[in-house]
């Protein structure tokens, strides 16, 4: 994520209140939602998204996902304690 040279130019105006880091994570998740939608999956597994990331990047991804949840851009759910988090997209153009 840090290595990606996207500075969120042309981002969805709904994300204007978010930090640059939150918008970057929104774009990253949007790409995963697009891939999952083409495979007929409704949800993205955050463990798979954070795969091959450092602890710092994974923690940032988790935190920024919760920031987007508080604003109603994504839905986060977990079947039971200590299980894998599943994220689903609520807005149609979250990462654009």
From TrEMBL:
A Pfam short name: Rad21_Rec8
One GO BP: replication-born double-strand break repair via sister chromatid exchange
SUPFAM superfamilies in UniProt: Winged helix' DNA-binding domain
Domain Rad21/Rec8-like protein C-terminal eukaryotic: 42-78
One cellular component term from this protein's GO annotations in UniProt: cohesin complex
InterPro entries (alphabetical): Rad21/Rec8-like, Rad21/Rec8_C_eu, ScpA-like_C, WH_DNA-bd_sf
Domain of life: Eukaryota
Record-level Gene Ontology MF annotations: chromatin binding
Name of the protein this chain belongs to: Putative rad21/Rec8-like protein
Species of origin: Rosa chinensis (China rose)
Lineage of the organism: Eukaryota, Viridiplantae, Streptophyta, Embryophyta, Tracheophyta
